[in-house]
Amino acid sequence: MNEDFNIDNEKEILTEKRLSARITQRSAAAQEVISHKPDALERLIVPVLILTVLLCFAMAWFIRFPETVETRVKLILPNSPKPLSVNTVGQVSTIFFESGNKVHKGDLVAVMESAANYHSVMALNDRLSRMITKPNGSEAKSLLGQHGDLGELQPAYQQLLAKLDGRLSLAVQDENVLYKSLTLQNRYNKLLRGKEQVAKEETLLARERYEQAQSAYLKGTLAQSEMIKEKTAYQKSQLSLPEAEINRIRGQQELIDIGKQLKMLHQKSGEPRQKMMAALTDFKREIDLWMLNHLVKAPESGILVFPRPLFKFQLLDPSHPVAFVIPENQVVYGETYLNQNNFGRIQKGMNVQIRINAYPFQEFGYIEGNLDFISPIASDSGFFASIKLKNGLNTSNNVKIAFQNGLNGDALIYIKEQRLFNKIWQKLMPAEHK
Questions:
Q1: Phi and psi, residue 428, nearest 5°
Q2: What CA–CA distance (Å, rounded) separates 24 from 22?
Q3: Between the CA of residue 336 and those of 330, 394, 409, 418, what are the distances in Å?
Q4: Given this model, what pLDDT does residue 167 score?
Q5: How many CA atoms lie within 13 A of 223 on its CB side?
Q6: Distance (Å, rounded) from C-alpha 160 to C-alpha 141?
Q7: What is 66-77+331-433's CATH topology?
Q8: Nearest-5° angle of CA 282, CA 287, CA 290?
Q9: Residue 351, CB half-sphere, CA atoms under 13 Å: how many?
Q10: What is the DSSP-derived secondary structure letter of residue 401?
């Protein structure tokens, strides 16, 4: 056993000698590198590098970003702005609204230059409208005194007054008196009917009291004088009933007489009345034509917008709109066309982000929407699609964008969310391995 131990020691000694001989044969630089012990910072580099790589892989796996399809979009109003145009060449004399003001349908926006006072013309137009609805010849003479500044309408107005017949005025005055008498007589007849009803009720009560008094007298519980008193009251009430009935009949006859007089007046004033109505209608057409050529009115309720500044005494041409009215409470939507690329991945209801060119999204934000309609039939431009805006023209930065014709921009359609790792992998891998 000692012999074996000695043999092992001899082998170890021999190995050490060989190793020492090899070490002595190396260069000094190599020996220095081998014998150098790294410090703490150098020992941490490898673990930190490994952790960094693992963290990058984890972030690439968990971080997701939306995959989008980009296309061009244009904002559309279903009811396009209504133009305001003049019907004749002329200068503006009065402007009542500014660009951006709210107007209602029929509001007077501007007045073209004219020798007539538009206040007088509009007042006269109202008076004529009432006269045509309910003719009244007594107002004919008052028109000239109240509306003397009619400019180019003055000759036609003088012809109107010449055509009005004074006899018709008197007939209409008598007719008005009869209508008032008719109204009063109806009220009086109503009172007479009420008095007649009261007289009937009083007669019934007097009869009941007389019958009770007579019964009590026969039983001996009431004096004869009291019974006679009730009988006298009953007889008086009977006398008042025929008088009330006669008054009611007279009132009805009075109504019949007034009706006959009205009928006679209508027959008497029939032809002059027709002439008056024809004259009023002719002059009303003259006023309507003047208003059409000199008054600029809002065609619809909404927001008034001037395409260019409008100044007093500015010359206007019918070929160029003076302003536009953008109807209120309208839903703006986007129109776009989808090309063949990735069309099969796009579906109705997908979220869309609209970035308007005129309003940089970095400053104003973007408009949110979703696909509301996708046409199954392609055109030369692609597949038509409409985008419904979730919050109207309010952007993600709470900025209200004013609608204008021609607003367009980019639409980003969100297809799905994708891992960053998958995106990098698709970029790195060759096409045949994807």
A1: -80, -35
A2: 5
A3: 19, 20, 10, 25
A4: 47
A5: 3
A6: 11
A7: Elongation Factor Tu (Ef-tu); domain 3 (2.40.30)
A8: 130
A9: 11
A10: P
Among candidate residues 279, 271, 282, 283, the one with its CA nearest the CA of residue 171 = 271
0.90 exceeded by the pTM?
A: no
H/E stretch holding 379 reads: strand 367-379
CA distances from 175 to 130, 171, 267, 367 (A): 17, 6, 12, 69
- Terminal CA-to-CA distance of the chain, rounded, Å? 70
CATH of 83-115+295-320, one of 2.40.30.10, 2.40.50.100, 2.60.40.2470, 2.40.440.10: 2.40.50.100
Which candidate, 280, 307, 369, places its Cα nearest to that of 332? 369
Block means of pLDDT (10 residues each) for the chain, length 434 residues? 56 62 54 61 73 75 72 84 85 87 89 85 82 59 60 81 59 65 78 81 83 81 80 79 78 78 65 71 88 88 85 85 81 86 82 90 90 87 89 87 80 76 64 48
Please identify, in words, the CATH class of the domain defined by 118-290. mainly alpha
Distance, in Å, from the CA atom of 287 to the CA atom of 157, rounded to the nearest integer, reads 10
What pLDDT shows up at residue 425?
66
